[in-house]
Request: fold
Amino acid sequence: MITRRLLLIAAVLAGALVIYAQSNPLNSLFNVLTSGKQPTQTQTDTGQALAQGAKSLQNPGPVEQQTIGESLALQIVSRYGGLVRDPTIMRRVNLIGRSMARYSDTPYLPWRFGVLNSPTVNGFSAPYGFVFITRGLYDLARSDDALAGVLAHEIAHVSRHHAETVLKAAEFGAAVGNFVLARSGNARTAQPFMEQLNAGIDHLGSTLFEHGYSPDTEYEADHVGHDLAKTCGYAGGGLRSVLVALHQRTGDSKQAFPTHPPLSDRIRRLPDEPAPPL
Amino acid sequence: MKRPNARQIWALAVLAGVAVIAEAALVVGNVGYTKNQDTPLKASPTATASVSAHLGFGARLTVMESRGAWLRVSDGRAASGWLFSLMVTDTKPEMANGERSVFGLDGGKTTATAAARPLTDDTKTYASQHNLGSARNDVQWLEDQCKVYSDRDVDGFLRAQKKGEYQ
Reply:
């Protein structure tokens, strides 16, 4: 009975993989599973592995989140000049950040806040509690209210699992599912699946760096972050004041927050509350 | 009489605004769930009030009363009291027992926040394969730095700054 169910799940997933493989750079997984080039992997093994992958795909566990989050953090840090190793700055961003993260929907994550050594103005986050802002953004958000506003936006991305949502979408879902396969203990079959996971993380990073999240996802992070910062006691207008200052300098030219929607759209959607000093 | 400057006027406006608009997301009659390993319920709507009960992760609560950013809640049995509104969520936390232990939500002493975690072996492999050795050093440094700030430090910061439940 169990074997039949596994085979049914395998058949359904195999069908999904056919569609998935049409346009995905990770389609070597599809080739591995269908070409028969791995004689040691029986049909039953494949069914069990795919069933495990499907479970992981639905709800990545903490180990999967940690590896995906750390790997994405490595990419962020590498692309944006490394970390600013200033204890005073670290203390400030971590205390303000964690004073809000403890009231987020995922207070139990090991939250870490870092400043990237880049003059550009941008912010990033990764699963498992990683939040980064650039030195350019840190220098702009000088008051605690303004800094809390930009950090709360990134906290919202993490607590709402926005990166995982991207991974679960059809284009990346198999990469998450394969993570369990890679950890299944079968060393002979683990390597190609690990390569798929790595390729998925690479693709996720490239997508976030080049295009960012969807506009609706960014607006949700603005909204959730605004409410979090405000209810924690920071000025509700913190993030908006930063966006307005940037818009006065650059307009919607994408010089600031290039991976986010136009500044004017974000400003218009946030409540027009008293702007704290920057 | 000395006229207040713009910064002082703004600060007063924010204080007045916080007092008026700091409302709870959940309203009377809503159901919420705790999201920490330990959520203390208070005898009155203030952080310094005595603790009337302790609730574990994922406890189901009904909102009985709302006062500013505080909610009076009941679990329908013996536990009732006040908590800061951001200590409950309207979404039931979905987490397997094994995952709870990783995050220290099952009563264990070590929480993920408090513990310094080395990068996973898979992450180290990823860094090696992508020539991210420098970034790996940075992220490991970040992990080491962040362990300096304990939950107690954050709590002290909230008290000193009058933020969160200490407003």
The longest strand of chain A covers residues 112-116. Chain A touches chain B through 56 residues (CB under 8 Å).
